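Hi P.,

Sorry for the delay on this. The queue was packed all week, but I finally got your sequence through. Input first:
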Amino acid sequence: MRTNKTRRRRHKKHNLLKDHWLGALVVSSLIIIGAGFYHEIDSSKAAPVEPETKTTSNSLITLPKDDAPHSSKMEWWYYSGHLLSASGKKYSFHDTVFLVNNSSLMVNHLSFVDHQTERRYIDQLSSAGNLSVGTANGFNFTGTSWRMSGGNGTDTLQASTDDFSFNLGLSSTQPPVIHGLNGVLNLGSAGNSFYYSRTRMTLSGTVTVKGKTEAVSGIAWFDHQWGDFSSTQLAWDWFSVQLDNHSDIMIYQLRDKFNKPILYTGSYTENGKTEILSSKDFVLSTGKKWLSSKTGTSYPVEWQIKIPAKNVDITTQSLRNDSEFDATLTTYNIYWEGAIHVTGSHTGQGFMELNGYRIVKRIKITGKVLFF
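Then the structure:
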């Protein structure tokens, strides 16, 4: 039975959330692992891993129709953004809604950083069912203390916690970026994935931190991905980069548990026109690393990105090294998600997500094995 009651993160509710989530996993046989891809629960064997995958045009993305939820195994709406207040204060955030197993379960992950104090706040919730049932040409996820809604590039984000709150309006400034070939990524035996982005959305609204409210403005990145696709024991590096010359770059590297490349791809957008990047079009190399005192995980927080055909040779550096997101209360995984700044041949800003750097842990439940 679907309910609109949401549960915000509270330590005393850990067992309740755990039972709810694990129960849903036994039924749906899958688990979310972040904002980029997910790990499938497989009671027998892993799906065959292809070499670098190719895109195909089996289906097309139609907007704003496909802004709305779909009936699929996995779907997410993802935002990340940089904010500047009227007094010159800087903030960053990421906000994601996941729908799992044909919308039987919804999860929200939220992080917010005050770059003046370097304080980072995170929040997460889970809810049975899809809070955006019946919407057309858009989405409207609304809880008791939060909202994510929009369509056709005009969106609203609202959140309220004990430590911070925001009320933001977003508007896309250029055509959406359709990844792959006509928006479809062929993942071989794992199935097809639909994926598009709005890479440069203006932001305006208010932010409240510790009771003090200020007007803010900035830019955000939006991702929407869905499909009946699956993957097992994966790791990835994902970058969204908004250059000061108004060009936008998306790159992700997807690997298996043995660090073997599966899919290296990306996009380069300039003046509203997008070129899809293959692994031959860019080179990534790591620089400085940060060691988490909580998990003992080492994350590369500095990277060099080269796209020779575009004369791009940049270095990305995390704005806050300690940006692990502990999602064990909702999705039972830990990943790195945070803001980056860009120097080199071009300057700019963006976001980075790193997953799979932590040692894989397994839990046996009624014969199933969960990987996270």
